[in-house]
Hints:
Distance between the termini of chain B: 33 Å
Strand content of chain B: 25-35%
Oligomer: heterodimer
Strand order of the largest sheet of chain B: 6-7-8-3-9-10
Number of strands of chain B: 14
Number of strands of chain A: 4
Largest sheet of chain B: 6 strands, mixed
Number of helices of chain B: 10
Shape of chain B: globular
Amino acid sequence: xxxxxxxxxxxxxxxxxxxxxxxxxxxxxxxxxxxxxxxxxxxxxxxxxxxxxxxxxxxxxxxxxxxxxxxxxxxxxxxxxxxxxxxxxxxxxxxxxxxxxxxxxxxxxxxxxxxxxxxxxxxxxxxxxxxxxxxxxxxxxxxxxxxxxxxxxxxxxxxxxxxxxxxxxxxxxxxxxxxxxxxxxxxxxxxxxxxxxxxxxxxxxxxxxxxxxxxxxxxxxxxxxxxxxxxxxxxxxxxxxxxxxxxxxxxxxxxxxxxxxxxxxxxxxxxxxxxxxxxxxxxxxxxxxxxxxxxxxxxxxxxxxxxxxxxxxxxxxxxxxxxxxxxxxxxxxxxxxxxxxxxxxxxxxxxxxxxxxxxxxxxxxxxxxxxxxxxxx
Amino acid sequence: xxxxxxxxxxxxxxxxxxxxxxxxxxxxxxxxxxxxxxxxxxxxxxxxxxxxxxxxxxxxxxxxxxxxxxxxxxxxxxxxxxxxxxxxxxxxxxxxxxxxxxxxxxxxxxxxxxxxxxxxxxxxxxxxxxxxxxxxxxxxxxxxxxxxxxxxxxxxxxxxxxxxxxxxxxxxxxxxxxxxxxxxxxxxxxxxxxxxxxxxxxxxxxxxxxxxxxxxxxxxxxxxxxxxxxxxxxxxxxxxxxxxxxxxxxxxxxxxxxxxxxxxxxxxxxxxxxxxxxxxxxxxxxxxxxx
Lengths: 377, 291
């Protein structure tokens, strides 16, 4: 009996072109587009600025500044003014204290980047000025010159930064793949609700009940096919991240964690998505209503849970709020696996929460469906 | 024997079945006649254990509906009014699915295919079937568990006259296979054609129950019904043609009508004189229910 019901469910899903698009094509395209589009935003390499230096000074200090900037990996000095972000003009008699560097900002540079640019330049200018003061002091007092010369403006000598949490920032592929896997898995609502509601509306559910098929058997027979479908989704999306995304000059996905952790997390996430989808399917009165409610709920849970905007760039209060979304639990679990080489025990917490969420949804769905059937649907 | 005693079923303030009592003999075709909302579908659902009754008793072949619901479901089958199968599956996939979930035998599957003439369309996707073919598939699914009782809930709604005739003919066959048939309809012609015994219900109550012969004896008008072999090309004047198989005329025009039929080489099955109790009752009920 069970095998027949499972086979029927597979046949119905794989003949639903819209469902296949939503389940497999949509998340794969999203992974590709978002990984490539956000490649530079998520890049963890150093920040560099393209600069052209217009030197109006003939003194040695300006030459030293240019040499320093050339040695600084944050600055790329250009031979011409074209395609640069900044033009730094060194005024005549730059060594005089009242002479200021003139900076022209080309095009739209975000404020935070401008601040970083100013800070990096300031570090070089101040360091040069200190050296200059030390040189001037040397004939008068070698001790004073040495003291001034020992002043360092490097970040490491000035700051001791400690991270309370070892927050690792994912690259664009590491962020996109789990994000769209989670989002895509919750789209089982489309085939589930369509099949459920058609069965209800066309009296097939009544017919099945009249054939001594219990509601729990009906529900169980629906869980297994969608777990398989969700797993196919997971492995297809991982394959897109690992093998397709690199063709677009974007880092490939590396699975550093335990495969068993990945399987457990996917299983729990699938259970959670199926539970929520079943709840919507048995509550809605038409498949249009179910797909609308399901779609809106997916987008809301995604927006809250870090699918639309990565959690690590959210304000702390929003990060805490994100914890209410099961999508956030799934996303956290995947990031643990990809970034921190998590084993099965490191994702146990997220997996249990997801499984519990799915179980509660399924129990409520079963109660609602029993009530509906007893009332003649 | 199916015995329904004082059965009550209410939905909110509506009494769908109101102390309804009736008896259905084994291996008969029992017609349940009533206007829409009379309680026919509710009664079928109660007989099949799909809904809980509020009070009263239902006994089916010695089995109590409250205690032996599972056993009752195993020996019965309901053919719902709506097409209850999967449109995206082929005819064969649908039949295989419903057969497997009931552990139906291959013999039962083959018999259901044969009786309903489905062998030529087995590989066809169900959504592409004609209305009549869909109805036949709907019925075939109900035969898979080799039931002792089949409940037909208005199986000919929205079906063309030709398919309706085929369905009605096949239902007569079930009686020959030893199956008890309970058939609901609001078409009197269908009930008259296939049923042995008829119950008329209105507003959840039994109005009358009798064998069909008794219901058809009383003449209350000069109307004459002529049942003919189904013909799609009937060309007759001043008569009422129902389903291309029943012609209604009057005693005065009877001989002209018979001559016209002979001229068209149309065979007559039977001639019935007068409006019947069945029709009178049904019209009374319809008027009372403003239908």
